[in-house]
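Lab notebook, bench 4. Still working through the backlog of constructs that have no structural model yet. Next entry is a single chain of 138 residues. Request: give me the structure tokens for it.
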Amino acid sequence: MSTRVSSALSKATEFLRNERKRIGYFAVAVLIGVIGFEAGILRGSMGSASPITIEKPVGELAPANCVSDAQVAGASTDAGPDSAKPGATGCKFVGSKNSTLFHLPTCAAAKRIKPENIVCFADEDAAKAKGYKPGCLK
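Model written out:
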């Protein structure tokens, strides 16, 4: 072996002995970075899976006692403004037996009223005459 090679080898060995602690810290930091990068790549590939699809139509998810738009919009009978039979026609405003507000049948609040609690009104004056106040009239 030539003196140049042995001199370079001895310098490298001396460097490694003197700096082994720093080299160890550097190696640990590199390993942590590589592991983190790999975990990120694996996690990114999981996000490209196909989307979840719901097989059941939305209409079948509603509870049995839920009032449909058609029921609320047509909730009335020919008996008068107090009647509470959903499905009949002529109901321009609806209220609840458990509340003092009246609403348009298309209002979200009106759609939440149970069918057995619906009170129908032909106009705003009829609702106000029974002591009801305007609620959702949009």
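Notes after review: Residues 59-89 have pLDDT under 50 and may be disordered. The chain has two domains: 3-46, 58-134. Flag for follow-up if needed.
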